[in-house]
Amino acid sequence: MPAEIYLNVAVAGLLTGLVYGLMALGLSVIFGVVRVVNFAHGEMMTIAMYLAIALFNALGLDPLVMMLPIAGVLFVFGYALQAGIINPFINRPEHSQFILLVAIGLIIVNVLLIAFGPDARNVQTSYAFDSFMAGPLIVDATKVYVGAATILVTIALFAFFRFAALGKAIRACADNYTGALVVGLDINRLYALTFGIGAACVGAAGSMLVLLVDVTPALGPAYTLLAFIIVITGGLGSMPGALLGGVLIGLTEALAGLLFTPSAKSMFSFGLLVLVLLFRPQGILGRRAA
Amino acid sequence: MAGAQAGTRGKAIMSALLTIDAVSKRFRGVLAVDQVTFEIGSGSIAAVIGPNGAGKTTLFNMIAGVLAPDRGAIVFAGDRIDGLKPDQVCRRGIGRTFQLVRPFPVLSVEDNVIIGALLHRNDPAAARRRAHEVLAQLDLFDKRTQRASALTLPDRKRLEVARALATDPKLLLLDEVMAGLRPVETDRIVTILRELNRATGLTILLIEHVMRAVMALAERVLVLHHGAAIAEGAPAAVVREPAVVQSYLGAEAV
Amino acid sequence: MRRLIEGVPPRGLVGLAALCLALIVGPWVANDYLLTVLIVILYFAYTGQAWNVMMGFAGQLSLGHAIYVGLGAYAAAALYVHFGIAPWIGLAAAIALAVACGALIGFLAFRFGVAGVYFAILTIAFAEFARIGFDHFGWVGASSGFFLPVANYAHNDLWTLRGNPTMFYYVMLVLTAAAFVLCRILLKSRIGYYWQAIREDEAAARSLGIDTFRYKMYAVIISAGMTSVAGVFFAFYYNNLFPEQVFHISRSIEMILGPIIGGIGTLFGPLIGAFLLTGLSETMLELLGALGLDVPGAKQVFYGICLLLVVIVLPEGVWPWLARKLGLAEKQS
C-alpha cells in the first residue's frame, strides 16, 4: 500500500486520538482527585453527544460552536451527581462505588435508548466533506477543526490547574487530602467541582466526537472501556498521560483498522491494556506504581 | 533443648531460635535498618525498643517476610527465612500481630481465631476446638460470638494475639501490642504472655514503647536508633546505658 | 448432612422446605408464560450464585463473567452440532475451557498484583476480546450466529436436552439446588473460611499462613466452572448463540444484579435477588403492555434504579435485611 495512505490514516487517527485523550483526561482528573472510578464516563459522553445531535436537528447549531454550552451542561450534571449521590461513597468499600456508577451508567444508556431509539444518528455539517491538502496529506476539515479545538481546550485546562487558585486547590486536594483539610479547603465542594470539570471534558469531547462517528446509546459502555484503557495505558492520575494514551490508542486503532479488519482494532487496544496492566501498571507517564 | 539465657552474649548459635545476622534495609536512600545482629534463644522473651523511626517495624517486617533484607541473613530454627513470603514464614512457625490492629472486622471473634487455627488443622470442627482453647487463654471466650469490629481496642489486641497463637507458632512477633492500653490492661496482657511463655515455651519478640511491659517481660533488650543497634542486654542494664538514655529514654525514665 | 444445616434456626428450615416444595410443584400450577419466567429466575439465581463465589466469598470483582457463559455455551453447542456429542458429555469440555480461561485471567491478575478496579477492567477486556474473537470464529457461525437443530417439543429427550419448557425447568432447578448446596459446603469448610479472610484483609490473611494466590485461584476457577454449566443450559434452551449477545457486557452486568441486590456473600442473596428483579421487572412490563406501551430499555432502567436504591439504602442487600426481620439471620459470611 502506498505510503500516503498510511500517513493519512495515521494523521486521522492522531486527530481522533486527541479527542479520545480529552475524554480520558476527564476520567483522569476525576480519579486523580476524587478517587472515584467513573464507570459511567462513556455514558456521560453519550449524553453530550445526543444533546449535540438534538440541538443540531432542532436549531441547526454546529456542535463545535455548542461545545462550550454543552460542556457547561455536563459540568452541572457532574457537579450535581458528585455532590448529591456519589459523595457518601468515597469512604465505602471499593466495589460499592463501582456498582453505584455501573448502575448510573446503566440508567443513562437506557434512558437515552428510550428517548432516541437504537438507530444510529449523526450530524452532517456544511463542511462535513471538506478537506485540507498539504502535499501528500489529505485530512478531513472536520478532524482538523476538532483537533484544534481539543488542543485549545486542553491548554485551557492545563492553565487552569497550573495557575488558577481553584485549580491549585484541587491539585492540593489530590496530593494531600489531610493537608488540604487542615488548610481549610472545602473538600466536598472541590470534589464536586472536579467531577464537574471531568464531566465538562467529556461534554466537550462528546460534542466533537459527534462530528466523527455515528451515535447509538450502546456507545456509552464502549467509550467507558476505551477511556479506562487510555488512562491506564497513559498513566492513571497523569493528565499528559491521558492525552498521550489517547493519541496512542487513536493511532493504533486507525492503523490496525487499515492493516487488519476494522473490528480487530479493539483487540489491539485490549492487548495493549493487558500488557500495560501486567508489566507497567502505573502506565507510561504514571507517577506512582498502581 | 537448650533453655533461655538471660543477659549473656556470645552464646552457642545452636540454642538460638532466631538469628538476625547483619541485616540491612534501605528505602530510596534512607538506611532504615543498619547491619543489625541479634539472637533470640528458644523459649525466651526479647524486646526491641527505640525511638519512632528507629527501624523496629522494618526489622519485624523483614522477619515476617513482608520485606526482604538488602543484606544479611535471617535464620529461624536452622533455616534461612529472609526473602520468604509472609505466608511461608508463618507456616515455618512465626506468628505476628500488627501495629495497627487488623482483625477481620465482619467475622466473629471465634471465626477470626478459627482461621488461624486452620493452618494446621483441615477440619473446621477441630479448628474450632483449638480456637476455644486459645480464646480461653486470652480471656476472650465469653465474647467469641461477637463481631470483631464491635470489640474495644484492648479486646481487639488480644484477639489478634489469639489469632496468631492459633497458628501454633514457635515464635510470636508482637508489634506494639501495649500501645493505647491502660496500665491495668497492659498488666493483663503481660500476665497472659508470661504464662504462655512459661507453660508452653513460646518464644516472644516484642516491639514496645511501654517500658513497664518491657521491664516486666523481656529477658533481653535490643535498642535501635537510626536503624542501628546501640545497645543490647538485660533490661535493667540497657536502660542505664548513656547512649540509650540520651537517644530514647531521657533521664526521668530510669 | 448435619453440618450443612447446623446453625440454621428451625423456622428457617421450615421456610426452606416450603420453598423447595413450591418450586417442585411449580410447573403444575403455572401457565407457560410463568414457567418461562421461573426458568429465567432460576437461571439468574444460578449464575448469580456462581459469580457470588468469586465476589462474595473471595472478594474479587469480575465484570466480565459472561465470558464463561459464552465459552461453555459455544463449547457444548459446537460438540453437539458438529459431532453429535450430548450436552452432558459436552459439559466436561465446557467446564474445562472455562476453567482454563479463568485460570489464565486469575494467574495474570494475581501473579502481577492486578486488583480492584484494574482487575475489573481486565475481566471486561477479556470478555470483549472473546466477543470480538467469536465474531470472527467461522466454525461456530461467527457473527451470523450458531444454531442448534430444534426438535419436536412434544418429545422430551433429557440426554440431548431437547424438550418442552417443563423439562428445562427441572434441569435448572436441580442445577440451582446443587449450586446452593455446593456453596454451603464450601463456605463451611476450610476454603470458605480462608476466602472470607482474604476478602476481609489479604495481608492479615497471609500473616496467618494462607497462600492467598492459591485460594484466589480456586475461587476464580470454581466460579468459572460453575458459570460455564449455565452456558451449556443457555445454548440448549435458546438454541441460538450470537457472540454479540452472549459475551456482551450487558450479560455480565445482568448476572451480577441478583447477588448484589439480594446480598453479596450470602447464600440466599442471589436467589432472592433473582426473584425480586425478574419478578418485579416482568410485572412492570406487563403493566406497560396493558397500557399499550412497548418501551425497549425500560427493563434495564428498572434494573439500574433497583441497583442504585439497593446500593444506597441497603448496601448489604435485601436478604440480610429481610432475614433480620424474619428472625432468620444467616450467619453473615
What's this, in brief?
The complex is a heterotrimer of chains A (290), B (254) and C (333). Chain A is an all-alpha fold. Chain A has helices at residues 3-34, 41-59, 67-86, 94-116, 141-163, 165-175, 177-183, 187-209, 219-234, 239-259, 264-279, and strands spanning 131-134, 137-140.
Which features characterize this protein?
heterotrimer; B: 254 residues; alpha/beta; Rossmann fold; six-stranded mixed beta sheet; four-stranded antiparallel beta sheet; 9 helices; 10 strands; 35% helix; globular; C: 333 residues; mainly alpha; 15 helices
What does this structure look like?
- The complex is a heterotrimer of chains A (290), B (254) and C (333).
- Chain A has 290 residues and is mostly helical.
- Chain A has a domain at 15-117 and 147-232.
- Chain A is built from 11 helices and 2 strands; from the N terminus they run ααααββααααααα.
- Chain A has helices at 3-34, 41-59, 67-86, 94-116, 141-163, 165-175, 177-183, 187-209, 219-234, 239-259, 264-279; strands spanning 131-134, 137-140.
- In chain A, helix 1 crosses helix 9 (219-234) and helix 9 (219-234) packs across helix 10.
- By secondary structure, chain B is an alpha/beta fold.
- Chain B has a domain at 1-92 and 205-254: P-loop containing nucleotide triphosphate hydrolases (Rossmann fold).
- In chain B, the strands form 2 sheets. Chain B has a 6-stranded mixed β-sheet with strand order 6-7-8-3-9-10, with helices on both faces.
- The two termini of chain B are 35 Å apart.
- Chain C has one domain.
- Chain C has helices spanning 2-5, 10-29, 32-57, 66-83, 87-111, 116-135, 165-188, 190-200, 202-207, 212-238, 243-246, 249-262, 269-290, 298-313, 318-325; strands at 146-147, 240-241.
- Chain C has a two-stranded antiparallel sheet with strand order 1-2.
- The mean pLDDT of chain C is 88.
- Chain A binds chain C through residues 37, 85, 92, 94-96, 98-100, 102-107, 109-111, 113-114, 118, 217, 221, 225, 228-229, 232, 261, 263-264, 266-267, 270, 273-274, 277-279, 281, 290, and chain C through 55, 61, 63, 108, 112-114, 116-118, 120-122, 124-126, 128-129, 132-133, 135-136, 249, 253, 256, 260, 264, 295-298, 300-301, 303-305, 307-308, 311-312, 315.
